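COMPLEX REQUEST
Ligand: tetradecanoyl-COA
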Amino acid sequence: VVAGNDSSSPDEEQISNPDPHPATALAQHRFWETQPVRQFKDGLGPSLVEGPIEQPTPVDAVKQEPYNLPALYEWTTCDMDDDRTCAEVCNLLRDNYVVNEASTFRLSFSKEFLRWALCPPGYFKSWHIGVRVKATQKLVSFITGVPSRIRVRREVVRMAEVNLLCVHKKLRSKRLAPVMIKELTRRAHLENVWQAAYTGGLLLPTPIATCRYWHRSLNPKKLVDVRFYRLGPRMTMSRAVKLHRLPEAIVTLGFRKMELADVPAITKLLRGFLSQFFIAADLDEKDVEHWLLPVENVVDSYVVQKPGTNELTDFCSFYTLSSSILNNQNHSVLKAAYSLYNVSTKTPLHQLVNDALIVAKKEDHDVFNALDIMHNHAFLDKLKFGPGDWRRHYYLYNYRIPFALRSPALGLVLL
Ligand code: MYA
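STATUS: Structure written out below.
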């Protein structure tokens, strides 16, 4: 499928030069070296072809049986509609998923969040894959994909967005992760999907771009208490509180929560906005309804409606994801908002996002996070976001981009 326009070609602004991941600095990757991804040794340059690395095979030639697991384990498909299964997944992730470097926070998912993240339009139950211990039926590993369309330059490609890869702490370093990935790949192939997008903190062959999280403190006292951040040498708590104080009321006239009837107008706004990025989500009305229509404590979206008209001029959105705070006597949960898509045509972007900060604060979020992708760099400093330690590498599976992109070339938020 061909879509988009010439403005999606990469220019100086979008390409990072030189290669940010020189081959000499990098470790061996026994698994990833066998996969259709751009290898570190390939380097960069116009001699490499952009696009799929391997061609698809006919679907009936795809391996029909699951990959072998060690004898004590078996595959399971996790039905997220089933409350018990969904709770098992929440518990596995609560105890074993991503921690920060200092092991003070671990991402924690609610059932509602998982259903939103894993059941978008056209999702495949078979892509919600678990591994159980045969004898006890305990869930010990998990990986998921959801179908999406992602435009790369002018090509709209059907992909799997892969996320939530998790192996129980006691089963680490036993090469189970590659089996999980291969099994998901097989099941994607069975649905005639041959490409994937994923992100992670780990440097693997080879990121298409590397971004950074920025954090805007909404509740500085708690963030200092739980050591989310430290006060600088010349900063006192009362100065930090004052610095991060937000107005009580929203500034933008016509700013209101998104409703179902807004879906067509927002889809149009968003598609126009996303067409300028080298790589971006290709969202239709069904996707917008699923990903952006507000769900309490999961996703929030606001529009600006021009007073006295039906016209929607601007749009902002964020999702909510908490972390468990490990080993702190006073606090157990850190509630974070993560910037999703923000489109401004009339309201200045920083004012729009400032209003999002105000509503996020009112909903008891402690911090507002944003990646330095899309046009986010235009509001980060102004709105007192600070750069975090977390890097996030963006990857494509079986699709080569023969240069490294700068983060503002990304019009794609992966959860
Ligand atoms: S990112 C979130 C990842 N999850 C966590 O960080 C949670 C906590 N950690 C764990 O649960 C485990 O440490 C995991 C690894 C499960 C991560 N992405 O089994 P092993 C490679 C890709 O001995 P373990 C997210 O969910 C590693 O480089 N590969 O390791 C996106 C090595 O290969 P190589 C990873 O520590 C996931 C091999 O696995 C990752 O016990 C996207 C070691 O295996 C990682 N995050 O378990 C997945 N971590 O030797 C790819 C380790 O070559 C999707 N490895 O270096 C690809 C597209 C598939 C669909 C295609 C469709 C067409």
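REMARKS: Residues 29-32, 96-98, 145, 160, 162-167, 172-178, 181, 184-185, 188, 193-196, 198, 200, 202, 204, 397-398 surround tetradecanoyl-COA (CB under 6 Å). The chain has nine helices and 18 strands.
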